[in-house]
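User: Predict the complex.
Assistant: Input components as received:
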Amino acid sequence: MDEEFEPKIIGFLCNWCSYAGADMTGTARIAYPANIRIIRVPCSGRVDPLFVLKALQGGADGVLVAGCHPGDCHYGDGNYHARRRLALMHRLLTFVGVEAGRLRIEWVSAAEGNRFAQVVTELTQQVKQLGPWTGLQS
Amino acid sequence: MSEEIQQAIRIRAKELLKLGEVGCVIGFERGRQPAGTGRHPALARTRPAFVYDPADVDRLVWDQTCSQNLVVYLHPEAALGAAEKAHHRVGLVARPCDVRALNVLIHEGQVARDRVFVIGVACPGMSDGQEIQAQCRRCRERVPLFYDALVGKPPKAEVVVDAYADVTEFEALSAAERLAFWTGQFDRCIRCYACRQACPGCYCSECLAEQVDPAWLTIAHTVPQKAFFHVMRAYHLAGRCAECHACESACPMHLPLSLLNRMIAREVKALFGTVAGTDQQARPPLATFRRDEEWPI
């Protein structure tokens, strides 16, 4: 097994900014790692913080939650709520032994195709270094 | 100290029941287990008591083993006795941490303030018979935030240097060590849900742990299921846990559950500047936000 470890990363992208941003990455033909599996959500505020743990327990090695920049939320304040919730979840997961680098929360607008590619590239490299996540699983 | 509190509770309970101020006083009574058994070997166990008749108030006791949080009996779905249901008000023996838990429930609209006559205990701290328990040694609160009657003399609050020293100490371990620790702890969990039942903050009529659709958890007795349950419970108590320690006291496997809750409480205070149950006006920290806040995530 000399194959390089390819992490699985689950990306929760908000419909209005980050998902469109990922679309922009594609239409602009910008390459980014295929390690990310994207789940489109209506808003980053839709992401129950427990989704993160559920993803990690379900075989993901890293999780990305991306939403509109603060102030740009389609629904006004969904991302502000997400920010609080996920900041706390991040700390809780770190406390029970998940490496801090496995979860990332980013704001990516619909115009930031470059940035989306950069975020995914960075996170993929980071998780690659951390190795596969096998904790809290049977 | 305890004798004095016990006497005061009896007098107050008798008066309240006689005058018809309350239909029931929820306090503690001596359990059947004699001294020399159970978790507090030096003291006979105590258990919750529901006193409806003024002639019965001598059943009520209070000592430093009365560690359950009686606020759980105020949950809307708790099985209340007929007399209690018929009557608008109940008397409740409550320590400072219990009162903050009660405050959370009042704030969340689960309990009406005027439904409870709070017999506040000036708390000397819980003890295992030999020494004051760790969580009480860390606690600064000696007098409840609010009460309708106060029993006991406020003891001198000890100076607590760093109430979260144990949390910080645990955080100094590596991620792998922390994971190994919690995996071992969660592995010992028997999924009895005693922590949830003992918790005043856990009042959902359908707990996520038992919800069928969507099924967040299976009934499997495995580490991932138990880990998810405990992380979920800790998270759901974020900004709401009064750190009364009822979950940990109730745990038959002695899991260090409050370590999770206290870590979150510390973060909630550091990030959002709130302490559970101290403010009845402010919105719960996770139901609100400030536009200008920013933390490293």
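Chain B touches chain A through 39 residues (CB under 8 Å).
Let me know if you want any component modeled separately.
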